[in-house]
Amino acid sequence: MYKILATSGNAKRAEFTTVHGTVQTPVFMNVGTVAAIKGAVATTDLQEIGTQIELSNTYHLHVRTGDKLIKELGGLHKFMNWDKPILTDSGGFQVFSLAGLRKIKEEGVTFQSHIDGHKIFMGPEESMQIQSNLGSTIAMAFDECAPAKADRNYVEKSVARTTRWLERCKKEMDRLNSLEDTVNPHQMLFGINQGAVYDDIRIEHAKRITEMDLDGYAVGGLAVGETHEEMYHVLDKVVPYLPKEKPTYLMGVGTPANILEAVDRGIDFFDCVYPSRNGRHGHVYTKFGKINLFNAKYEKDLAPIEEGCNCPACRNYSRAYIRHLLKAKEMLGMRLCVLHNLYFYNHLMTDIRGAIEAGNYKSFKDERLYLLKTYDKDKK
User: Fold this and answer.
1) Which InterPro entries does the UniProt record give (predicted)?
2) Which of 42, 50, 318, 323 has its Cβ near the most Cβ atoms within 10 Å?
3) Model pLDDT, residue 148
4) Domain boundary among 257, 272, 287
């Protein structure tokens, strides 16, 4: 169940109740592709840093360790010791990212495994079956994420096929949820809006999938080659055609600035690998922008990554020490940076929710963007 608690302009502050707990939105989903956050971060860490919902990937868990084994072991929640909501991506993004290793047909997609090259077939039914085996809270529909600047004719055909695939996903999800041995009989299904940067295709697709009355709706196919301005334009056009009374999810986005802008356009859910990926390379987020701890100026800096931050890294260690760990290639340095970044993103969302509740989201957004643009001088 999704309940809007407050609005500020187009920004929504809501609660999303699931069988695995209630999510306060807007929310950032911490990305654990193979049932773990890269950077030696445990699910016990996620509890400590304020994570509400974790995201894992259908394709990656299918090829390793295998969804059938995970089902046998009690499902993904039990397997990774995480009792809060989990969203599983459908494998559809791999249709885009593994373009050189796949072939798309009406039935589905044939992949070559990126691990050992063996052939894998995945269509809507297979994606739903894998996600049902995992027992995630929210399953994503199987779709094709076409490149942002793809030819219009190709995009039209791709979106039409994605719509047909969504119908098959819904039918198969209903069947799987009715089985006696299903891990999570309350598994939810989110549909995905596609259409590259073509306004009319996006809008028509949004209308079509809204008619299917799904549990939630995502905007996909962004952050795959278009500019930030083009992404915001697509959101301005398409979000009004998605049901306001359902959660909206912007897939694979993004930077703190992207999140601030997208919330202002009605987005509830976000995920991105940036905080963990950047953290593993010593790039850490602050209200005043991103800093690179490898820079020599932090060699003797005894301040925390960010003053006032209550994450495990900032409570206990200095920039100088973390820089030393990174330079020495000690895993602890990487781990501390990832923990800080995830904490930063999780608590950015807390601040966003507070600003919407207070009815002053626009001024909050402008202030945060000003700080980022004014002080972000250490990107290299």
Assistant:
1) ArchSynthase1/Queuine_TRR, TGT, TGT-like_sf, tRNA_ribo_trans-like
2) 323
3) 82
4) 272
